[in-house]
Amino acid sequence: MWSSGLFAGYKPAGLPAAGPCLPAREPGTRCWPAPPARGTEGTWVPVQIQALARHDRAVAAHVVAPPQSVAGWKGITARLAAGAVAAWGVLVLIGLALVHVLNAGSFHAADLSVDTWLARHRTGPLNVITYIGTTMAQTTTAVGVTVVVVLFLRWRLGRWHESGVFLTLMAGELLIFLGVTATVHRPRPPVARLDVAPETSSFPSGHTAAAMVLYGGIAIMILWVYGSRPATRVIAGVLFCVPVIVALCRLYRGMHYPTDVLGGALLGSFWLYLVSTTLLRHEAAPARAARRRPARGRTARRGRGARGVLAGARRS
Question: Where does the chain have alpha helices with state H?
Fold first, then answer.
């Protein structure tokens, strides 16, 4: 038998009302369509109720709460700007020391020995593999992947915040890198190079820094959107290995000293940490749990209510 009590609390926001409606409890929500005439219940209830119950479960399982920022936009801008200037200053000091102080002697010889050893042990297959590895952090690759990630985050979460975070990662790393290379003019290693050398300084490695923020940023977004579970942790671990692969490929191809790729890793990891902790802060665990407990209760009651409606329809 149909009764208005069976429909209490079930108000699908996206379902257009057709004909008479049962009253909705909450303002701003559409009411349920009135039940069909006796004898036609089976044609409406299983399809509509089951679809709406699945929708409620899907929404409850995949909604990601907005992040909590450390301060207002002025504070965020000041924090990121100060971090970028600090990163530029530290890397410039390291780079100038490598160019003017540590450019001779045992330290420089050890730095160069890695490149010369790799150049003597090159092979055809390794040349191809390292070309693929270095392409993973080329400018065109980074731009293309960034566009895809930004659009996906906007579609998946329905807001621009996470997309803006990812753009901040990529744009900030590029600006710091260009500022350092414009100040530090370190020549490339004196070995045969397999790639065309860009005009920028050898220190720091731009490919390594870009790989760190690009693939590390994707890893953090996966954990942020889908939570920390075995599958997402494995994927994130694989993504965090990509910058290491890119760094080794750049060394093999004679494009950087080991200290260059270490400088690029330092730049990328610092900027990744600063941006993610500034713009993607979680609430404290007790507050988050207290907020989610009522939501789970409402979702469970909705599921039980939908099943009850289905059972009543079958009995009638």
Answer: 41-62, 73-100, 106-120, 124-135, 139-157, 161-183, 206-226, 230-252, 258-279, 285-315
0.85 cut: is pTM over it?
Answer: no
Helix (H) or strand (E) holding 280: none
N residues, the chain: 316
**CB atoms < 10 A from the CB of 77, how many?**
12
Residue pair 25/267 in contact (Cβ under 8 Å)? The answer is no
Helix axes 258-279, 230-252, angle to 10 degrees: 150
pLDDT tens, 205-244?
999 999 999 999 999 999 999 999 999 999 999 999 999 9
At which residue do the structure tokens 């050898």 appear? 202
pLDDT number for residue 264: 96
- What is residue 177's predicted lDDT score, i.e. its pLDDT? 96
Tokens standing for residue 13 = 């926001």
Closest Cα to residue 257, out of 209, 199, 186? 186
The fold of 73-282 is Vanadium-containing Chloroperoxidase; domain 1 (1.20.144)
Going from N- to C-terminal start, the domains of the chain cover 1-63, 73-282
Tell me how far apart the alpha carbons of residues 171 and 23 are, in angstroms, rounded to a whole number: 51
